[in-house]
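Record filed here:
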Amino acid sequence: MYRDAWIKVDLDAFKDNIRTDIKKTNKKIIAVIKADAYACGAKKIYSSALEAGVSLFGVSSLEEAVALRNYGCTTDILILGYVGLEYLDLVRKYDLTLTTISLDWVKELIKHQPENIKIQIKIDTGMNRIGIKSKEDLLKALSLLKENRVQLEGIFTHYACSDDQENQMTLNQFNIFKDMVNSCDTHFKWIHSSNSDASLSLNETFSNAVRIGISMLGINTYDKCLKNVLSLYCRIVNVKKVNRGESVSYGATYTTAQDEIIATVPIGYADGWLRRNQGRKVFVNNEYALIVGRICMDQLMIRLNRYAPTGTIVELFGEHIPIEDVAKENDTIPYEIITSLSDRLTRVYFENGAYLTNFNPRLNRSEN
């Protein structure tokens, strides 16, 4: 770790959150580890997910699926997004499961000799993104897939408003999904509709699995007992006294109101800590301090209430600053904050309450 900025990943909390979901839903778990496992690092995190009882992995793209295989994962992998049919040889080589995008996509698929290709059918029940929307198209697609002897592994949908406790859309989407699945008169190994929020709020027995992503990190609208997994830290690398009336950083957007102690830390918008975080608080020296001046590409400055030496740890989110608060103050969602964190940040893993290892994505290297 050559820069004093890192992401801490608590593997104990990660596994506990998965086990909580298994216990509360009594269903199989599909762990969605797209976007490098939401910044946790898929290379390391997938084995902890398996240890906790995950049955299937979901990723967003062919590239993510191949990477997961190259990390050593032998468990089934469902690609949730679009895959071009020119890549079917890779799909076979890595034993991957594809998602149907539309009836037209299925019609193109059967032109490529898809025998034994693993398929899950995506139903569009109101998200209007990808998936088969009408019952007529569903039955046509199902017939074509069966005639061409693909392996029909499952059927699923995705909810648009499962984080909104007052919205009835989730229940409406579930009822549409249930009706369309029943119209298939087909046995599916996997039937799943619930994402992280719906898995802990929608009480239904029709499906046999749930897809969880961000709730594995302890973030969920309905269950506040889940444990925090991700924290973002850096260390102070410089401290100086700045006289009253001086400015700090680009554009001189901050001017000291009195003599102040300004510390610099090596994290910036190229790491995913965006300029809009100017004026937000961090936690340092057992108290809160403010980010002052514009955040730079590689560094930012904070105003200390009292002197702290170089090497002092600064928390940007974690135990004292919930990621949900960061998202709310940025008028966004935790997903965006987490997935904006770049591969310049070393992932540092803790297990059994102690340091385990770290992984530097840029160097593709772990160190104990």
Summary: The mean pLDDT is 96. The chain is about 25% helix and 25% strand. The CA atoms of residues 288 and 294 lie 18 Å apart. The longest strand covers residues 354-360.
